[in-house]
Structures are given as C-alpha cells and as structure tokens.
C-alpha cells in the first residue's frame, strides 16, 4: 500500500475507534435518524468482508515469525496491509451494527453477547495492528493474539447467526428429528409450530422481537404483538396472521418479508384450517375426522402410521433400460433409495398415446406407482395398465375414463390406492366394480360429481375403503377468498387484448371496475372472459362466492404500446445503482417491482436524481403520436417520487425538434402507500420521426418529508408511446 494511503487508513482507524467508544458510552442517548437506518441495515451484508480478511490476516500472523516468512519483505508488507484493511472494515461493520441495534425488535440476551464480542474483536484487531512493530511483540504474543482475536470473531459470528436464524441454526440439521408418526402427532406442536420455527421465529424470538411479537411458546403466541392478537380462534378471515400472509409480496406488511423464505400453499392452508378449527393447542391429528382437510394436509408433513418396511420380491430393473425409457414426456425413478420398485410419471398430454404405456413392458414387474393425471387416457387404454402386476398406486385424476372402464383394473391384485378425481364416474358404476377390488384401501373421488350422500353411502357399504372427497364448503364457516389472478402472459399489448382473469375456487364470481373504485358484489361489472381492452387500463377485481367472505381487491395494470423506436439512446447519465440495460430497457416489456436496489430486480429500473432523465428515440417511418406515458415507482418513505415534469419534443430531424407537450404529474402531499403507476398524458396528434423525452426528477422533496429540500429519486422501467 502506498505510504500516503496507509497513513490515511491508520488515521481513519484511530478515528473509528474513538467514534465506536463514543457510541458505546452514549448508547442510551443515541437516536439513529431515518437516513442512517439504511446504513445500519447493511450490517448483515457487510460483516463478511472483515471476517474473511481478519481471519486470513490472523492466520498469516500466526506464522509470521517463521524464519522464511520473517525474512520475506513481501509477506510482511502484504500482511500489514491486509490487517489494516480488515481492521478498518471491522470498525465500519461495528458502527453499522450499533446503528442497527437501535431499531425496534432487537432485544434479549443474545444481542449484548453479539455486540460486545464484536466490539472486542475489533479492538483486539486495532490494538494488535499498532503493537505489531514494537520490540516486545514476538512469536508467543503474536500467536496468542491471533488465537484470541479469531475466537472472538467466531463467537461474535455465532451469536449473530442466532439473532438472524435462531439458536438451532447450526445444530438444526444434525439434531433434526425424524417426522413424528401420524398416530402420535399433536396438531399444534408437530404441524403448526414447525411452520413458525422455519418461517417466522428468526424475526420473532426473545432476541429479535420484531413488532413485539414472539412465536416461541404458546403464551407468547396467544398474547400477540404490538398490532394486536395474532388470530381470532375460529375466524381466519379476520385473523391478523392470515391477513399479513395474504398481502401482496411487495407490501411492506407482508409476512414473511421479501428476502425471507416464504410460506408455501400447504403451510398457508394449515394455518388457516388450524385457526378455523378454534386454534386448539392440545388436539392430536388422529382425533380429527378421517376426511378433515386439516388432517389430510397435516398427514403429508408427518410419518405414516408405523408399519413394517415393505420388501419387494422382484429384482431391480436394468439401469440402461430405465434410462432408455425415460423421455421428455415420461420420468422413471426408484420409489425409495435402493428399492427395486419404480414410480412412473407422464407429462405433456399432446405427446401421450396408449403406446407410451405399452412401451413400459420391459419394467412392468417393477412399476408400483403410475401417474397418468391430466393425460387423455380413455377406457380403452386401461387394458394396457393391467400388465403392471405389482402396481399399488394409480393416479387417473382428470383423465377421460368412466366408471365402466375401471372394470379393466380389477385384475390388479396389489392395487391399494386409486385416484379418479375430476373424472366422469357415477355411483352406480362404482358400486358395480368396487367389490372386485380386493386390496383397494383408498379411493380419491373429489370433484367427480358424486354427491355427499352418495359418498357417505359408498363409505358405509365399503368400510374397508377410505373415500377422500376433499374440502366441501357447507357455508357454515365462511373463510375469505383469495384474490383473483391474471392469466395473460403479457400485460403490455399493441392490439386489442382479451383480459383473462381466473380463480382457483369453482363457482366464484369476479367483479371488476376500470375507474379506480373498489368493486362490490352487486353493482360492479361481472367478469365473463369477454372483456376486451384497447387502451391502457387499470382493472381492480374482487372474488365473491356465496358462503365465503369476498376477497381483497387486487389491481392489474394493462399497458397499450403502439410504437417501439427503431433506435434509442440516453442523452444524460443514469444513477449509478439503477442502470438496468440502458435505454433499451424502456421498451423490453420487463416490468419492475419493488425493492429496486435488490440485485434480483435492479436490472428493471433506470433512475436519476441529480440530472434529468433524457432520451432520444428514432423511428425509421414517421409515427402519429398523441400520448406518452412512463411507468414509475413511487415510494415516498425512501424518497422515490414521480417526476416534476415530463417534456415531449418531436420533429423530423434530431436537430430541429419542437416542444410538443409538457406534462406535470401529481406530486404526493403526504406519506402514502408505495405504488407502481404510469404517469403521462395526451396531446394533439403530431407526426414525428424523432422523439425526445425529458423527465425531470423532483428537485426538492417537500417540507413534510424527512429529506426535505433534497432532490428526489426518479425510477422508470417502461415507456409507452401511442
């Protein structure tokens, strides 16, 4: 390192040490301003650098006095520089951590240990750097210091992992217990609590009490947090837990927050069903009715009822044969490790024929599970399946078979589980064939058209068979519907677009508006898959069904784009962080979302703060232009505002442009929920070959804002010319 830079770094190290002492001494009086909170939140990201650098430097220090190293000038110089940089980065990390610790939600016994071991590690590194040139500093001292400092770094890192991931983060994989057997499982302890531990406890534990909510024990769960009770027993639709989970992922109140492992649909369903069932903390899973939805889903998380491991009396199939029969439309895999039994799954209904089943004759003895769900299987094809003499499980869900065709399968003496959901079977057809299935113990029949009475009669007639009919809404315990979903692959269009909205629950009505108002269940338009839009449109939709609570409203933006420039270039530089892929990103159809600073989304947004966003577009054929819109992010809390103005310039030559329009979007007058929106306007049609857009960021944030007087950030991801 250049001696001048080394001197500056050494001075910075002294200043950092003094500043850290100041922060520690006056910690109780310290209030971190909003603009510094982002610096503190970089602590988890930044801390890896000093850990790596210091550990490497300490390792080199341990061997520094070996004769070969002591005589090596490069070794000594490199080690000194390495140590200095590591100590400086450690100081910065400690400062960030002290800022972060002042935010709400960080308390408990672990935080002080993490804080003081981290501070100790820094001061040991700093003191060690200054003592290294002294005469008394010899090999025993160097080795002792290296070991002690490394120990403090490791201990500080351990307590940091406990803060962020829980106290069993390291030992969890080693101590992880086997799934609890179904007959022993308690609904809360063995099904619900593991969800909290995996997805929630890292932020809601005694050491990191976000929102004053702790989810580590029953008493704390019942107590709730700063915003109230976690749930209302028996009423998932008004329970805070479910409300936060169902918020859009970009909403700041959505739980778990973006960046954390999200709940999957099965986990969400379990939480909802548990609350609906009065949130009992002591009930066993097997105490629930056999066809109860909570029991059925919970069973997939638990060990099956204890039974002897099944040994198959046939040999394994040849590996080359399995590889030959595995294709892009058919997978073949062992049922379990070192098991000769095979599971076969079919994909791609357009490639399916009955011959594809016949091709498996070389492994007919080994196939015990066959999945033909959603394939165009007909009654005539079922004769091909009878060749699989050891077949135990067969999935024919949503195929074209009927109950009459099931007669072909009665020769499968090992068949235990048959799924025929979504097929056209009748109760008479089932009554005719079920007596001939000698080993069948489970029949899945939901969504077949069989009535509740018919299924109950079948269950009574064939008590040895478990009939699974799925969830039936009786209207007595309404729950809230999920919002509708948009099925259009693209929401940017240049030709009239047929809007496609859908909902996973059958019989749901979707009501919508296009004027920004909240849809209701009576007056708002009923969506019928016939909605054709020709201009940029914001559709707000809600789902309704008798016996259910209406869903939350959801908004879908559709953008009309008539013209895409043949070439485009930026006239002024972009913000260093938000450069996307340059000017072409304005017309690539990739819509940005929130968290613009995250690497996962950073390539969608282009931003400016200290200069205008200026763009020149060329069209090889003149266009008739009458509107310009920019899709922007507005997040007032972080200083992201709409543009102060948008200037539109056009003409037939880049050197002879005239101002066509100046558009002034509405600027927020208070903090409000962050949104993604298109801003712009219409003007008198103009024929242009060249178009210049100048969007000016807000030069001074308003008085009510924490950053008043400073320039706002402008973020744009797409432009629409019509």
From TrEMBL:
**UniProt lineage:** Bacteria, Pseudomonadati, Bacteroidota, Cytophagia, Cytophagales
A single MF term (Gene Ontology):
electron transfer activity
Q: Which PANTHER family match?
A: CYCLOINULO-OLIGOSACCHARIDE FRUCTANOTRANSFERASE-RELATED, F-BOX DOMAIN-CONTAINING PROTEIN
What keywords tag this UniProt record? Answer: Heme, Iron, Membrane, Metal-binding, Transmembrane, Transmembrane helix
Query: What parts of the sequence cross the membrane?
Result: 7-26, 46-66, 78-101, 113-132, 144-161
Domain Cytochrome c per the UniProt entry, residue ranges: 187-279
Source species of the chain: Runella slithyformis (strain ATCC 29530 / DSM 19594 / LMG 11500 / NCIMB 11436 / LSU 4)
Which Pfam family name is an example for this entry? CHB_HEX_C_1
Output the InterPro entries linked to this UniProt entry: Cyt_c-like_dom, Cyt_c-like_dom_sf, Cyt_c_Planctomycete-type, DUF2231_TM, GH29D-like_dom, LRR_dom_sf
Would you tell me the protein name for this molecule?
Cytochrome c domain-containing protein
């Amino acid at each position: 390192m250049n001696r001048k830079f080394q001197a500056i770094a050494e001075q910075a190290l002294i200043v950092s040490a003094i500043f850290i002492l100041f922060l520690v001494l006056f910690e109780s009086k310290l209030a971190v301003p909003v603009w510094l909170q982002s610096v503190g939140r970089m602590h988890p990201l930044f801390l890896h650098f000093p850990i790596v650098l210091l550990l490497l430097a300490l390792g080199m220090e341990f061997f520094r006095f070996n004769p070969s190293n002591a005589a090596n000038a490069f070794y000594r110089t490199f080690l000194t520089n390495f140590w200095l940089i590591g100590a400086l980065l450690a100081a910065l990390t400690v400062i960030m951590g002290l800022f972060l610790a002042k935010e709400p939600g960080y308390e408990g016994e672990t935080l002080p240990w993490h804080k003081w071991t981290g501070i100790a590690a820094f001061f040991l590194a700093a003191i060690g750097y200054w003592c290294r040139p002294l005469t008394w500093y010899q090999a025993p001292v160097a080795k002792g210091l290296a070991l002690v400092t490394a120990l403090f770094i490791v201990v500080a890192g351990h307590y940091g992992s406990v803060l962020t991931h829980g106290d069993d983060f390291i030992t969890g994989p080693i101590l992880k217990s086997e799934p609890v057997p179904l007959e022993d499982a308690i609904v809360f302890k063995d099904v619900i609590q593991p969800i909290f531990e995996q997805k929630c406890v890292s932020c809601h534990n005694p050491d990191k009490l976000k929102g004053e909510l702790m989810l580590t024990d029953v008493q704390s769960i019942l107590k709730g947090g700063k915003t109230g009770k976690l749930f209302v027993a028996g009423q998932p639709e008004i329970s805070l837990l479910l409300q936060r989970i169902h918020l859009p992922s970009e909403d700041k109140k959505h739980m778990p927050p973006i960046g954390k492992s999200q709940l999957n649909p099965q986990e969400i369903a379990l939480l909802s069903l548990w609350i609906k069932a009065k949130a009992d903390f002591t009930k066993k899973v097997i105490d629930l009715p056999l066809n109860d939805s909570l029991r059925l889903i919970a069973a997939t998380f638990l060990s099956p009822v204890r039974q002897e491991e099944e040994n198959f009396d046939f040999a394994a199939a040849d590996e080359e044969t399995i590889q030959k029969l595995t294709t892009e439309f058919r997978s073949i895999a062992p049922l379990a490790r070192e098991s000769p039994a095979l599971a076969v799954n079919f994909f791609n209904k357009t490639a399916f024929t009955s011959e594809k089943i016949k091709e498996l004759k070389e492994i007919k003895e080994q196939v015990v599970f066959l999945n033909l769900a959603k394939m165009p299987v007909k009654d005539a094809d079922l004769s091909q399946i009878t060749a699989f003499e050891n077949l135990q499980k067969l999935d024919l869900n949503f195929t074209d078979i009927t109950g009459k065709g099931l007669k072909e399968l009665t020769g499968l003496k090992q068949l235990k589980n048959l799924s025929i959901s979504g097929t056209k079977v009748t109760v008479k057809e089932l009554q005719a064939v079920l007596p001939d299935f000698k080993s069948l113990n489970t029949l899945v029949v939901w969504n077949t058209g069989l009535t509740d009475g018919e299924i109950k009669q079948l269950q009574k007639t064939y008590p040895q068979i478990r009939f699974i009919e799925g969830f039936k809404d009786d209207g007595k315990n309404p729950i809230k519907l999920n919002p509708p979903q948009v099925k259009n692959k693209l929401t940017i269009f240049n030709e009239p677009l047929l809007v496609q909205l859908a909902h996973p629950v059958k019989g749901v009505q979707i009501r919508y508006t296009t004027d920004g108002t909240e849809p209701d269940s009576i007056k708002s338009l009923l969506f019928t898959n016939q909605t054709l839009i020709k201009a940029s449109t914001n559709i707000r939709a809600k789902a309704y069904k008798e016996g259910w609570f209406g869903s939350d409203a959801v908004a879908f933006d559709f953008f009309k784009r008539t013209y895409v420039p043949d070439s485009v270039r930026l006239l002024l530089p972009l913000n260093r962080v938000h450069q996307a892929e340059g000017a072409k990103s304005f017309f690539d159809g990739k819509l940005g979302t929130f968290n613009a600073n995250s690497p996962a989304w950073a390539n969608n947004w282009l931003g400016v703060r200290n200069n205008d966003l200026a763009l020149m577009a060329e069209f090889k054929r003149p266009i008739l232009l009458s509107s310009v819109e920019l899709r922007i992010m507005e997040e007032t809390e972080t200083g992201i505002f709409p543009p102060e103005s948008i200037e539109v310039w056009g003409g037939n030559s880049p050197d002879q442009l005239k101002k066509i329009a100046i558009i002034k979007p509405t600027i927020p007058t208070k903090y409000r929920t962050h949104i993604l929106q298109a801003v712009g306007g219409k003007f008198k049609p103009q024929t242009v070959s060249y178009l210049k857009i100048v969007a000016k960021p807000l030069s001074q944030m308003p008085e009510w804002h924490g950053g008043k007087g400073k320039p706002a950030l402008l973020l744009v991801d797409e432009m629409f010319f019509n």
